[in-house]
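Predict the 3D structure for this chain.
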Amino acid sequence: MRRSNIFNGTFVIVLFFIFFISCNYSIHAGFAETENGLYYKLLNIGDGERYAMPKDYVTAQIIIKTEKDSVLYETKKIGLEGTVTFILPEKFTYKKDYREGFLYLNEGDSAVFITDARAIFLDKNKTKIPIGLHPESNLYVGVKVVKISSPEEQVAAAQLEKEKLEKGEFEEKRILDKYLVENKIEVAPVANGIYHIVLSEGRGVSVDAGRVALLYYKGLFLNGRCFDSSFESQPFEYILGAEEQLMPGLVAGVRKMREGEKAKFIIPSHLAFGSAGSSTGMIPPFTTLVYEVELLKVQ
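Done. Predicted structure below.
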C-alpha cells in the first residue's frame, strides 16, 4: 500500500507511525513486511511528491550492512556523487528483493530495508555468500532516493547530456588545436591523446623499474596560469600502482619517463578531470591541462 500525500503534516505523520507499528506487526519491530518478504521502515520524508513506479529510473544512495554493522556495499565509493541509477523491475522474481522497497518511497525519502544474504548474493548478484554469513543472515539496506525519472525523461536527459558532451569536447579540441599551433608543438599524441614533450633527456632507469618515483611537478592551464606546484615543497613521492595519487593522464606520462628527465605533458580532460571538472571547482569541465615534471629519482 502506498503512502498518501496526506502524510505531509507532522500530526498525521505521528498517527501514521502509530498505525504503522501496531497494524503491520512483524518480527522486526517498527518494520512493515511486503508480500515479497521484504521488511521496510521509512526514516525521513523528503520534499518530493513523485513515487517510484515499475520501469522508472531510480537514482539513489545505497549502503548495505551486516547485523554486526560491517559495510558490504556503498555507492559513496563507486557511484557518481555517491549514487547509482537502476531501472525498477516490473515484477520481482525472488523473495526479499530490496528494490521492491523503492515502490514505497518518493524523491527525497530515506528508508531502511531488511533482506538476507541469499537475496543479495545468490539471487540478485549470482555470487557466493561471503565467509561469515549464511543464506538467512539479515542484511540492512539503507537508502536515500535522490531522483526518479520515467523512461521517457531518462531518454531525453541522456540525449541532452550527449549534446552537452559533444559541445564540450568540440570546444576543448578547438582550444587545444589553437594552443598546439601557437606553440609550434609538432609531436604526435601518445597514450590515448597525451602529448609528451621531452625538455631534458634522462639517463637513469625507467619508472617501472622501481616502486617509488620522486618528482617535482607543476600544473598549468593552457594560458600558462599555474594551479598546482610541488617545486616549492618536498619532492612528491609517487608509489607505483597506488590509486588516486595522480590523475590517469599524469600516471601514463610519468611512466614513460626515465630518471633525470624533465618533460612537459599536455593532458586532455578525458585523462584529467573530465566533463565534470575538479570537485573543488578549480578545474572547469573539459579542460586540457599542462604538466611540467622533473623525475628526480626512481627507487
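Residues 1-25 have pLDDT under 50 and may be disordered.
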